[in-house]
Amino acid sequence: MIDPNGRVMMVSGANRGIGAALAERFHSDGWALSLGARNREELEESVTRWGDDNVRCYHYDALNSSTADAWVEETLSDFGRIDGLTNNAGVGHMESLSDLSEEILDEMWSVNVKGPLRLIQRTLPHLASCGEGRIVNVVSLSGKRVKGTFAPGYAMSKHALLALHHAVRHATFEHGIRVTAICPGYVETDMTASFGVDPSIMIQAADLAETVATIVRLPNTATVAEILMTCEPEVLG
Ligand SMILES: NC(=O)c1ccc[n+]([C@@H]2O[C@H](COP(=O)([O-])OP(=O)(O)OC[C@H]3O[C@@H](n4cnc5c(N)ncnc54)[C@H](OP(=O)(O)O)[C@@H]3O)[C@@H](O)[C@H]2O)c1
C-alpha cells in the first residue's frame, strides 16, 4: 500500500457532507491536505481542531475558473507537489423533466462537469510527475442509470462526469495515475435531507470515506475504476 505521509491530496467541497468526511479520513491516514471551498473562512474554522500545518484551505468556486487556477498554483507554492485530486464538489437539482430549465442545467454542467475537467487538466502534469498520482471523481449512481422520473438533469450531468472520468482514466494510465469513480446511492448529507427518504437506511459519509481512503492507497498494479455503493435495492433500467 502507498504511504500517504509526505503526499498532498486536494479535495473540493471539503467543508461539509461527503467532502468533509473524505478530508477527515485522508487526514487520519497522513495525507497533507489542500482543501477547497467557496467559503474559505468557514472551511478553516472546521479544520482548526486538527491543528495541523499540513492542512491548508483555499477558495474554490467551480463557477469561477480563476479560483481553480489560483487553488492549484497556491497548492504548488505551499506544498511543492500534488499527488492526489478528489473532485467532490457538486450540486444536485432534482427538477422533473418538465421543470428542468437551461439555467439549472447550466449550473450543474458547470459545477459537476466543467469544474472537475478544469482541475484535472491543471493538476495532471503534477500527478504524473509523482509516478503514483490519484484522482477520485465523486459521481453518483445517477451517473450509472436513470431512476424512473427522478432528477433527469442531475443524471445528465453525472453521466457526463462519468464519461470524463473514463476518458481521464485511459489517458493517464501510462503516467502512473489511477482514477476512481465513486458512485453511491443515497448518502446522508444536506443534499438528501429533503428527499423524504429515511436517513437511517442511507449510506454514511464516513463509510464511503473509509472505502475511498483504502482505494487511493492501493499500488499502481491494483486499480479500481468504479465503486458502486448502494443502501437500497437498485432496479436498473
Ligand atoms: N448525498 C448523496 O446522496 C450523494 C450521492 C451520490 C453522489 N453525491 C455527490 O457527492 C458530492 C458531495 O455531495 P454531498 O452529498 O456531500 O452534498 P452537500 O452536503 O450538498 O455538499 C455539496 C458540496 O459541494 C460544494 N459546492 C456546491 N456548489 C459549488 C460550487 N459552485 N463551487 C464549489 N463547491 C461547490 C458545496 O459547497 P458549499 O458549502 O459552499 O455550498 C459542498 O461543499 C456531490 O458531487 C454529489 O453530487 C452525493
The arrangement of helices and strands along the chain is: EHEHEHEHEHEHE
**Gyration radius from CA atoms, angstroms:** 17 Å
Largest sheet: 7 strands, parallel
**CATH class wording:** Alpha Beta
Number of domains: 1
Q: Give the % helix.
A: 40-55%
Query: How many individual helices?
Result: 6
Distance between the amino and carboxyl termini: 37 Å
Features:
binds NADP nicotinamide-adenine-dinucleotide phosphate, 237 residues, Rossmann fold, alpha/beta, seven-stranded parallel beta sheet
What does this protein structure show overall?
Helix 3 packs parallel to helix 4. The mean pLDDT is 96. It is built from six helices and seven strands. Strands 3-2-1-4-5-6-7 form a seven-stranded parallel β-sheet, with helices on both faces. The protein has a single domain, classed as Rossmann fold. The chain has 237 residues and is an alpha/beta fold. NADP nicotinamide-adenine-dinucleotide phosphate binds next to helix 1.
Detail the topology: elements first, then pairings.
Layout: E1 8-12, H1 17-29, E2 32-37, H2 40-47, E3 55-59, H3 65-79, E4 84-87, H4 102-129, E5 134-138, H5 152-172, E6 178-184, H6 205-215, E7 226-229
Helix pairs in contact: 1-6, 3-4, 4-5
Bound molecules: NADP nicotinamide-adenine-dinucleotide phosphate.
